[in-house]
């Protein structure tokens, strides 16, 4: 399978997994809605390598951009994507405990 590189990680796509699913599995922040190439919400920049599409998506895709929900990754690629930033839960016990 293809190696996917982002700003934070390098990982291998699993058999039958879309790029969007792989990015989610590895903790990356990717917006999405339809998961089928109609809306374009998951659009990311591709920095190196190429992808293909079984059916070209209906959403607008500019040069240098891909839709990870429906593209086919046949070679190693690098995409402009970062890991999710975890923020503290405001209701977490101990978050506002007094410091000694």
UniProtKB/TrEMBL annotation:
PROSITE patterns for the chain: 2FE2S_FER_1, 2FE2S_FER_2
Domain 2Fe-2S ferredoxin-type intervals: 1-85
Record-linked InterPro entries: 2Fe-2S_ferredoxin-like_sf, 2Fe-2S_ferredoxin-type, 2Fe2S_fd_BS, Beta-grasp_dom_sf
Entry GO MF terms: 2 iron, 2 sulfur cluster binding
Alphabetized CDD domains for the sequence: fer2
Coiled-coil residue spans: none
Record-linked Pfam families: Fer2
Entry protein name: 2Fe-2S iron-sulfur cluster binding protein
